Amino acid sequence: MKTIAYLGMDVHKDTFNLCALDGTTGEILGETRCASDVKLVKKFIEKIASNHKGEIQVKAGYEAGYLGYSLHDLLEKQGIDCDILAPTTMYSSSKNKVVKNDRLDAKMIALNLANNTYKPVYVPDEEDICVKEYIRMMKDFKTSLKKIKQQVKAFLLRHGLVYDGKSSWTLAHLKWLKGLKLTGLLKETLEEYLLQYDVLTDKIERFSQRIEELSHERRYKKPVA
Hints:
Blueprint: E1 3-11, E2 15-22, E3 28-35, H1 38-51, E4 56-63, H2 70-77, E5 81-85, H3 94-98, H4 102-115, H5 126-158, H6 171-178, H7 184-215, H8 218-224
C-alpha cells in the first residue's frame, strides 16, 4: 500500500528545516535541518523511503516568501511534487503562535499539507512569466517617461519659463513647449527632451495595446474580467 508522506519545509536563505509526516497515521517519519540545497532535500526523502516498508509518495510544501517560485521549480525538476502555501490561509495552532521556531514551523506546514488546511499559491508557467516580463518592461519605460517629464520641468524652472495653462502634458501644453522662442543649445536641449518624450509615449501606447490584446486571450479573459 502506498503511503503519502507530507514534507513541511521551513525555508531560509542558508538553511531548510524539514519535517515529514505519515499521511495516514500522523507519525513523524523524519526531521532534519540542512543547508538550503534541493539535493539535500531529495537525499532526506530517499532516506525516509529506504526506512519505510511500503512505497512512499511525497507531497512537499513551503510558505510563500522571498524564495518566490524558484524553490518550487527546483523541487519539481527533481520529481518532487510541491505546493507553495499562502500564509494567510494556513491553520496555525495556539502553541505555534506563542512558541516560534523553525522546527515547529516545518511541522505545522506538514500538518497543513496533510489536512489540506491551506490554499496553494498559483505558480506561473512560462507563458505567464513572459507576459509579466513584458509588463515589467512597460513599467520601466513609464519610469523613464516620468523622469523625462521631471527633467523638462526642471529645465523650464531654471530658465524662468512658466506655462499658464491648467494642465501639463496636454496637447495645448506640448504645443506651448514646442513653440517656445529659444535659440542655440537651449533650443536643441529642449528639442532632445521632447523627442525622447515622443518616442517613449509612442512606445508605451504600443505596449498598452499589446497588453490589451493579451487580456482578451482565453487564459486571461476571465481573470481580467
